[in-house]
Amino acid sequence: MIATLGRFSIWFALAIAVYGVCVSILGIRRHRPALIESAQGAIVSIFGLSSFAVLLMEAGLVGHDFSLEYVARNASLDTPVFYTIIALWGALEGSILLWIWLLGLMSVLAVMIESKRQRELMPYVTVVLLCISAFFLFLAAFPASPFTTISPVPPDGRGPNPLLQNHPLMAVHPPGLYAGYVGWAIPYAFGMAALISGRLGETWIRTVRRWSLVAWGFLTIGIIVGGRWSYEVLGWGGYWAWDPVENASLLPWLTGTAFLHTIMIQERRKMLKFWNVALVIITFALTIFGTFLTRSGILSSVHAFSDSGVGPLFLGFIGVVLFLSFSLLVYRSDKLQAEGDLDSLVSRESAFLVNNLLLLGFAFSVLLGTLFPLLSEAVRGVKVSVGEPFFNTVNVPIGLSLIFLMAIGPLIAWQHASIESLRRTFAGPLCLSIMGTGICWFFGVRGLYPLLAFGLSLFTVITVCQEFVNGARTRRRKTGEGYLTALSKLTSRGRRRYGGLIVHLGVAFLVIGITASSVFKLEQEVTLKPGESLQLGRYQVRFDDLSAWQEPHRFVVQGNFTIFNSNHKVAEMRPAKRFYPTEQQPIGTVDVRSTMREDLYLVLSSFAKDGTSATVKALVRPLMMWIWVGGWIMILGSLIAIWPDRRRALAADSVEEYVAWQPGRS
Amino acid sequence: MTKKTKLLLGGGVIVMALAYLINSGIREASVYYITPSELKAKGGAVSDRSLRLGGMVVPGSLHWEPQTLKLTFRLTDGKEEVAVEHTGSPPDLFKEGAGAVVEGKCTADGPFQSSMIMAKHSEEYSPPKEGGAPAEHIHRTFMKPQRTQ
After folding, report:
1. Are residues B102 and B118 located together in one domain of the fold?
2. Could you please report the per-residue DSSP string of A288-317?
3. Same domain, B6 and B57
4. Cβ B7–A350 below 8 Å, yes or no?
5. For the CA atoms of chain A, what is the radius of gyration?
6. 3-state secondary structure of A134
7. How many CB atoms are closer than 10 A to CB A437?
8. In this structure, is residue B147 part of a structural domain?
């Protein structure tokens, strides 16, 4: 029943998508608004049908309908309900269903919010979104159908992968990442609409700015939460391994960040039009590439599922997207001439240009490093890989330069900044951060990169604070408000600017956390008998004993440790190993004690079956929590920047853009 | 010098710097894959380069001393065997008869000094039909670097 209904709704949605594409092209050609409206109706129906399909799948999962192959593979009678629900994105087919649903949701929102204001562009946006939907619906209808049945019906399912039922963050990481990937479809669709219609002014740029921020925000959540999950579940003490799939999520984040900055230049100065369209195309293609890398298994990675046959289809789709988009871009290049010009090399424009070069360089090196084993085998016939050292050698200097730009960029004047104004803005923060760097040196920080990382992050924090304080002071002088009122009014009046500054603050925290936790990391692995302890940093870790018990869906062996800090008991920690009947090997469960100052991280690597000894790996990572705090600050900043400002947005847009809709005019 | 030349010059310098970084990064960090036969054929040609040596853990060759964390085993590709030494506890998927890739350096006449073990899923083990994907997934997980000091 579920299978039939599910398959039917996917096929029906696919048919509607194809219908929508045809009808909107016809509507544009024949100048028939009724047909365009019908195509927009198609978008709504696809969303309705995909929501229905998602609900059916959830009903199958929660109701343990093991006649569905997907349910049999990803749910079991013993799995807790929470992990059964999130098994929707535990494997390929369900993930594609989620992709389709999220794309449907974003498309419906885009149509609802923008169709009144963007009558010129909307028909083309509709076509592009429907084409993307059609591709993913095709995947779900044929090669990766989530509603395949099996017979005979097994009495119980395998249950989700143990790693995916080990941590609640699995409820956030994949959907966040997918929403980030899918979100870039909207700016891409607007970019394409601008190219096809030839309306390449600033209208599409202004419209996509908020949509891009939404996509960027989700991608940020997905990446940060993914790092956190990796840290708390995988038991190697790190959060980022330059794994191909991690890199794949970083790539669109980098180009998307570049795009968010250069669209400001186009808005202000009418420059970089060609560049912006190119960036949005590249970013969208990279989101598909990310999905491809995750799902094709061409590179080994934590995330790679078994080869599923959808890889070539993804590759083909990326090829078509890139070919069509760039052909159009070249075809329209005469309309993409800059109207403004760069006035001075010391200006915000040039800071943004350098930022773009660096971000793209970063993205290029990550892409190269990720594909290097494939490239070297194809070109030279030898298998060579570049690991973590490559990414660190190349990206640390680029990252540091980016932090420097991040501190100065928002404070340099547009067009031309005088030496005097630079001195006024930066002299104070520069002195303070040099002093701060000196203090770091005094406390034992050595080496060029760590000192630069701390110094530049501090510089960023100080400039951002200075900007807020100065703004609030000025406002207070004018209006007589209290400091806090002035500060919050200031932020709400200039959400985009101050939201952006808060994001920068978050990045600075993140960099401080990354630097401290990797440079001052302590690590030790020893075998202990009950009562023995190891000393690491300030901590004394005493092994007490082992305990073991059976849970419904797994067997658990746990090491009990007591932690002392200068003979003072501070905590008890219990890293464990969990044995799942469906897996050959146990899954380790780490225990982390986090404070703002440092994390203590324990892994039970091995144990004697008679309980007479345990091998434990202990890590101390200073300021680790700052990484997550920085991440949340970044997300807060993007929320502030995204928050709708209805009154002003409508007023500004309606004057310039509420032109009678004339389809086909270009 | 016009503004445009200055701009191009500045951009050029940045691009060159990036190219230099990438080039030196590749030269420093590239790691070659090698099989036990290839290593033997080179006849103890010791180099400072990191290598990745892949093979199957020879049954009966695996010894782990919990007190010293010394792990010794031999890797084979069916023709040649290479002795490997590692410090640290064996990763979860690592066992005799299963595939493994170790990263490390070749010493003059002692064993291959491994600094990282990536356990591979056993070739013989075939997971239940409907569960192929998750088991595969687990194996990839333990390919996460298990670095030692």
Report:
1. yes
2. HHHHHHHHH-SS--TT-----S-HHHHHHH
3. no
4. yes
5. 27
6. helix
7. 19
8. no
**Interval A269-291 mean pLDDT:** 90
**Residue B148 within a domain:** no
The pLDDT-based confidence of A291 (bands split at 50, 70, 90) is confident
- The whole-number pLDDT of residue A627 equals 96
Which of A23, A203, A192, A172 lies closest to A98 in space, CA to CA? A172
Q: Are residues B78 and B107 in the same domain?
A: yes
Mean pLDDT of chain B: 72
% pLDDT > 70, chain A: 94
Name which residue leads in pLDDT, B136 or A379: A379
- Which residues in chain A have their CB less than 8 angstroms from residue B144's CB? 234, 236, 241, 243, 302
- CB–CB of A596/A241 below 8 Å? no
Interface membership of A305 toward B (CB under 8 Å): yes
Query: Is the reported ipTM for this assembly greater than 0.85?
Result: no
In this structure, what CATH number is given to the domain that contains residue B120? Answer: 2.40.50.140
Residues linked to residue A573 through DSSP beta bridges, in sequence order:
A561
- Grade residue A661 by pLDDT with cuts at 50, 70 and 90: very low
Is residue A666 within 8 A of residue A199, CB to CB? The reply is yes
Q: What is the rounded average pLDDT for all residues in chain A? A: 87
Model pLDDT for residues B61-86, shown as the tens digit of each residue: 888 888 888 899 988 888 888 889 99
In this prediction, residues A424-444 reach a mean pLDDT of: 89
- Interface probe for B, chosen from A358, A367, A390, A392 (most Cβ of B below 10 Å), is A390
B12 with B53, same domain: the answer is no
Q: Among A116-120, A459-463, A652-656, B24-28, which stretch is predicted with the lowest mean pLDDT? A: A652-656
Q: Where are the domains of chain A?
A: 1-166, 167-338+347-414, 522-625
Please tell me the predicted confidence (pLDDT) of residue A658.
33
Beta carbons of A383 and B130 less than 8 Å apart = no
**Residues B25 and B44 both lie in one domain:** no
Q: Does B42 touch chain A (CB under 8 A)?
A: no
Mark yes or no for CB contact B15/A361 under 8 Å.
yes
Does B21 lie in the same domain as B63? no
| pLDDT over 90 percentage in chain A | 50
A660 vs A33, A202, A647, CA distance in Å?
A: 12, 18, 22
Q: What is the CATH number of domain A1-166?
A: 1.20.120
Residues B26, B36: one domain? no
Q: How many structural domains does chain B have? A: 2
- Shortest CA distance from B93: residue in chain A: A585
Angle, helices A348-379 vs A388-408, to 10°: value is 170
Residue A656 pLDDT > 50:
no
Q: What is the pLDDT of residue B121?
A: 46
A164-193 per-position pLDDT tens digit: 777 888 889 889 999 999 999 999 999 999
CB burial string B101-118: b at 16+ within 10 A, e below: bbbbebeeeebbebbbbb
From residue A524, alpha-carbon distances to A71, A280, B13, B96 in Å are 42, 46, 44, 26
Number of neighbours of residue A568 by Cβ within 10 angstroms: 8
C-alpha triplet A453, A456, A460: angle, nearest 5°: 130
pLDDT at B44: 58
Whether residue B149 lies inside any domain: the answer is no
B92 touches chain A (CB under 8 A): yes
Which of these, A395, A326, A384, lies nearest to A359 by C-alpha position? A395
pLDDT tens digits for A326-348? 999 999 888 877 777 777 777 88
A364 CB neighbours in chain B (<8 A) are 18, 22
Do residues B132 and B87 share a domain?
A: yes
β-strands B81-87, B112-119: how paired? parallel
DSSP string covering A139-192: HHHTTT-TT-B-SSPPSS---S-GGGGS-GGGGTHHHHHHHHHHHTHHHHHHHH
**Distance, in angstroms, between A91 CA and closest chain B CA?**
8
